[in-house]
Amino acid sequence: MISRYYSPTRVVFGKGAEEEVGKELVLEGARKVLIHYGGSSAEKSGLLDRVRTSLKEKNIPFVELGGVKPNPRLGLVREGIELSKKEEVNYILAVGGGSVIDSAKAIGYGLYNGGEVWDFYDGTRKPYGSTPIGVILTLSATGSELSDSSVITNEEGNLKRGCNSDFCRPRFALLNPELTYTVPKFQTEVGTIDIMMHTIERFFHSGEGLDFTDRLACTLIKDVMEKGLRVLEEPEDYDARASLMWASSLSHNGLMALGNDQRGDWACHQLEHELSGMFDIAHGEGLAIIFPAWSTYVYKEDPDRFAKMGHLVFGIEEKGEEGARNTIEAFKECFRKFEMPLSLKEAGIELSDEQLEELLDKATFYGKRTLGAFKTLEREDMKEIYLLAK
Ligand code: NZQ
Ligand code: ZN
After folding, report:
1. Does residue 378 sit within a domain?
2. Residue 308 has pLDDT above 90, yes or no
3. Domain check: are 31 and 88 in the same one?
4. pLDDT tens per residue, range 101-134
5. Nearest CA owner, ligand 1 atom 40
């Protein structure tokens, strides 16, 4: 078995990293930039003003498009593509968290490839390139700053779909952990769960494995758990914020899969995307609901795999099924510490039979796909997991 690792993003890390933006864009040959951002946080903190100043100092023309919402919408992506065409933009700068970066990636696909951008998300077409993207990250969570993935919600039908290709990996990422001091408690909590889950999903693969990568993965999960709890107590703890930021990038850039069957499992993410698409809950919240249900349903496939993670992350000594069950309980306890709901009901969602069927239709692409690798999930399996999550 071979695995590939490709992480072309130039990372500038540390206090003041965002001040490098003008220099980076000159290096990239940016002629006209679209600055893309979210609601109000980057404006309020003064970050956007610093970015504008940096570009002006380097004589780089730019236009702006703000308003990206969490679970970014296709409508704004289309607006961004039209604006960029009109303004002859050749570079996109995302200033924000995963939603802003993903929206920027979608604009990049649309601008470069032409045609209907949703085609890349519903799988009817594959992109053959992207307008280049640079990132100033303000929230540690998705790892989109280094990942090959972008997730967009189509308002028509509330369909949340991802598109994966190396073309959308950002060209550079400016990572200043201090920019995350203002992230609200809830976003820090859901972000921490997301970072952990990107490594967990890779750990539960179905092929051969590399012990070194398993140990690296479990060190990341343990550290993220500890540092996540620390910043809830002390939001301006630089070391903890810095650890979370770098872990967010490394958890989802492929490093945690090298030597393992790198496809990972990803059923929790796919089942979650349908939840946040339909109910507009935070991605990390949905993951905290789905992972215990999924684990309970699948652990008998290979209890020792669960026990290994439990040992390396929580120091659990039992092996086999007992070790696996203790591991699942330890994760639930951990998610509780991050004040996550562990069921749909706890998230305020009373799932009706009709909604369950709709989730299953969407999760199976209307009967066209199974999910997972650790255990392959058919529609009936997915149903059991959603019911366990109820
Ligand atoms: O919009 P503003 O005002 O900027 O507020 C945002 C937003 O409300 C706020 N925020 C961000 N940085 C802040 C801040 N508030 C104060 N101070 C700061 N420094 O946080 C809120 C949430 O932002 P969002 O970008 O939505 O969060 P996140 O980074 O968790 O992104 C979630 C999205 O990414 C997708 C998720 O599905 C979801 O749509 N994912 C993307 C992945 C990828 N591209 O690789 C992988 C993930 O698995 C995930 O699916
Ligand atoms: Zn995720």
Report:
1. yes
2. yes
3. yes
4. 999 999 999 999 999 999 999 999 999 999 999 9
5. 142
* Residue 167 sits in the same domain as residue 58: yes
Identify whether 3 is part of a domain. no
Reported as a single tens digit per residue, the pLDDT across 365-381 is 999 999 999 999 999 99
Expressed in angstroms and rounded, the spacing between residue 141 Cα and the centre of ligand 2 is 8
Q: Give the CA angle between residues 217, 270, 82 to the nearest 5°.
A: 105
Residue 107 is assigned to a structural domain of this protein = yes
Domain that holds residue 78: 10-179
Ligand 1 centre and the CA of 36: distance in Å? 13
Mark whether 175 and 209 lie in a shared domain.
no
Structure tokens at 345: 């009901």
- CA–CA separation, 224 and 228 (whole Å): 6
Report the nearest atom of ligand 1 relative to the CA of 148: 45
CATH number for position 146 = 3.40.50.1970
> Nearest-CA neighbor of 92 among 22, 167, 149, 35?
35
DSSP per-residue string spanning 167-227:
GGS-SEEEE-GGGGTTS-HHHHHHHHHHHHHHHHHHHS-SS---HHHHHHHHHHHHHHHHH
